[in-house]
Amino acid sequence: MTVIGIDKMSFFSPHQYIDMVELANARGEEPNKYLIGIGQTEQAVIPATQDVVTMAANAADEMLTASDRKEITMILFATESGIDNSKSGAVYLQRLLGINPYARTIELKQACYAGTFALMQARDYVTLHPKEKVLVVASDIARYGLQTSGEVTQGGGAVAMLVSANPMIAEINQDNQFLSRDIMDFWRPIYADTARVDGKYSSNVYQDFFKAVWQRYKEKSGRDISDFKALAFHLPFTKMGLKALRDVLPEANDEQQAALLDEFEASRVYNKRIGNLYTGSLYLSLYSLLENSQSLEAGDRIGMFSYGSGAEGEFYSLTLQPHFNSGLVTGQIESLLANRQYVSIPDYEKIFNNQLRGPEDRVIDIKDDGAKFTLHGQKNEQRQYVCN
């Protein structure tokens, strides 16, 4: 049987960040509330020169070869920060990245969960069409508003994944279990550009969904916690995933409990410094695990918990392939983090309020943004993208 899964992965987040200690001080909070209680140390700042389309393009461009661009026959764009209520962000990507014009281009939405659904649709499509490839991007900007309870869990960026037969990174196993319920823990009305959230309730729902789909997964698959080398979680803030992991740790022996905790720490190295990616959060966690774990080997099974408020949860597994690290862009995130520019809290607040919104024509100065793809402004209510 042909193996289908994630062949390549790539990541992008903008060139600016704030320090969580400084944000805590500015908001009159004890820094350890953010550093330990929330589990975040830094947060990506999204300038006006970047949106979900440019971030997705910057992420995908680094991993795609000329051959990939010809062989991709579907682009699935997962986001809850879409720029248009009609036109798919995937259509912009097709042009910006020079992808085969005979590809389908679709945008998907279900809070933070849509990236997982996109990945499963890609797997199933390539299973039927093993000579073709699908580009999956999960790109988002988490916005809750200045001086709100959710401000500490903002962030943004994009994860791009190429799904193919005979993948380098991981097989996507056919063992998914999922759960959906109509719950108002987090939402963003069509007229709003910041989210509404009941934080404590949402955290409780997240844990309840994890326990429910984990239990169903065990019943349906016959597997238990001893079958997993690591568990990766959707991490809107990294402490949330740790709480979920602790709910199931008693099912493991002492040695495996310690090992699972070590792998979890590896999986949240990057999320601690980027913040919330919504649809891309789980997959940045996977990227972090693959790059920072000291013990992963080919054949290891990785458990994946995806959650999207409103609400939908899913648990499935990946099986690592013999050359899994070869599918990652070498040194990409390390370089990105090393070259980011520190931003003071007052400057961050100005940037936050300077996003492109409304119908007016506008030109945005892009000279300080070194990314390949940037947003140069808007003309006649059409966003103007630039390839630098």
Automatic annotation (TrEMBL):
<feature type="active site" description="Acyl-thioester intermediate">
    <location>
        <position position="112"/>
    </location>
</feature>
<dbReference type="InterPro" id="IPR013746">
    <property type="entry name" value="HMG_CoA_synt_C_dom"/>
</dbReference>
<keyword id="KW-0808">Transferase</keyword>
<comment type="similarity">
    <text>Belongs to the thiolase-like superfamily. HMG-CoA synthase family.</text>
</comment>
<feature type="binding site">
    <location>
        <position position="144"/>
    </location>
    <ligand>
        <name>(3S)-3-hydroxy-3-methylglutaryl-CoA</name>
    </ligand>
</feature>
<dbReference type="InterPro" id="IPR013528">
    <property type="entry name" value="HMG_CoA_synth_N"/>
</dbReference>
<feature type="binding site">
    <location>
        <position position="276"/>
    </location>
    <ligand>
        <name>(3S)-3-hydroxy-3-methylglutaryl-CoA</name>
    </ligand>
</feature>
<dbReference type="GO" id="GO:0006084">
    <property type="term" value="P:acetyl-CoA metabolic process"/>
</dbReference>
<feature type="active site" description="Proton donor/acceptor">
    <location>
        <position position="80"/>
    </location>
</feature>
<dbReference type="InterPro" id="IPR011554">
    <property type="entry name" value="HMG_CoA_synthase_prok"/>
</dbReference>
<feature type="domain" description="Hydroxymethylglutaryl-coenzyme A synthase N-terminal">
    <location>
        <begin position="4"/>
        <end position="165"/>
    </location>
</feature>
<feature type="domain" description="Hydroxymethylglutaryl-coenzyme A synthase C-terminal">
    <location>
        <begin position="265"/>
        <end position="353"/>
    </location>
</feature>
<dbReference type="Pfam" id="PF08540">
    <property type="entry name" value="HMG_CoA_synt_C"/>
</dbReference>
<dbReference type="GO" id="GO:0004421">
    <property type="term" value="F:hydroxymethylglutaryl-CoA synthase activity"/>
</dbReference>
<feature type="active site" description="Proton donor/acceptor">
    <location>
        <position position="234"/>
    </location>
</feature>
<protein>
    <submittedName>
        <fullName>Hydroxymethylglutaryl-CoA synthase</fullName>
        <ecNumber>2.3.3.10</ecNumber>
    </submittedName>
</protein>
<feature type="binding site">
    <location>
        <position position="243"/>
    </location>
    <ligand>
        <name>(3S)-3-hydroxy-3-methylglutaryl-CoA</name>
    </ligand>
</feature>
<keyword id="KW-0012">Acyltransferase</keyword>
<dbReference type="Pfam" id="PF01154">
    <property type="entry name" value="HMG_CoA_synt_N"/>
</dbReference>
<dbReference type="InterPro" id="IPR016039">
    <property type="entry name" value="Thiolase-like"/>
</dbReference>
